[in-house]
Automatic annotation (TrEMBL):
Gene Ontology MF: a single term: 2 iron, 2 sulfur cluster binding
All residue ranges annotated as the 2Fe-2S ferredoxin-type domain in the record: 2-78
Family annotation (SUPFAM superfamilies): 2Fe-2S ferredoxin-like, CO dehydrogenase ISP C-domain like
Tagged with keyword Iron: yes
Organism of derivation: Roseobacter denitrificans (strain ATCC 33942 / OCh 114)
Keywords: 2Fe-2S, Iron, Iron-sulfur, Metal-binding, Oxidoreductase
PROSITE patterns named among the record's database cross-references: 2FE2S_FER_2 (PS51085)
Organism domain of life: Bacteria
Record has Cytoplasm as a keyword: no
Protein name: Carbon monoxide dehydrogenase, small subunit
Gene name per UniProt: coxS
PANTHER family in the cross-refs: OXIDOREDUCTASE WITH IRON-SULFUR SUBUNIT
Ranges in a coiled coil: none
EC number: 1.2.99.2
Length: 161
């Protein structure tokens, strides 16, 4: 067993872990931050995306020990300081970018990373960036619309594929 400490959503967090403990397990099981979903354990679905030191990572493929001393942001920390939805979360709601909601935390965290990197992506760039995130319900159309809307762009020309 080893001790790990990090900052999660702006608050100090620590715990005792086995060397094989995944970051997703540490967040969910020890910190009770269950918004980080685990859908595949193989880095295929993207439901576990969090930000580590400002970079989007799949928490199911990163050891908790690798996040020692890191700044970790999860979906629970994405809302505005007053608890209201941030622009991206609100766009997902407004444009019906979710159905069952299982993929939504990972989609939102991935989209936030995209918009940080590229504040005005094209529709093709959004679709390409989301390649590592699987949604079994929506067909991605409204997710793409939500991300485009959150970037301040028109969604009128986005065609369903």
């Amino acid at each position: 067993m080893a001790q790990v400490s990090m900052t999660v959503n702006g608050k100090a967090a620590s715990g005792e872990i086995e060397g094989r403990t995944l970051l997703s397990s540490f967040l969910r099981d020890q910190l009770n931050l269950t918004g980080t979903h685990v859908g595949c354990d193989t880095s295929q679905c993207g439901a576990c995306v969090v930000h580590v030191n400002g970079e989007a990572v799949k928490a199911c493929t990163m050891l908790a020990a690798e996040a020692q001393g890191a700044e970790v942001a999860t979906i629970e920390g994405a809302a505005n300081a007053d608890g209201s939805l941030n622009v991206l979360q609100q766009a997902f709601q407004d444009h019906h970018g979710l159905q069952c909601g299982f993929c939504t935390p990972g989609m939102v965290m991935s989209a936030a990373a995209l918009l940080k990197e590229n504040p005005k992506p094209t529709e093709a760039e959004v679709r390409d960036y989301l390649e590592g995130n699987i949604c079994r319900c929506t067909g991605y159309h409204n997710i793409v619309k939500a991300i485009m809307a959150a970037s301040g762009q028109s969604v009128d020309s986005i065609a369903a594929e």
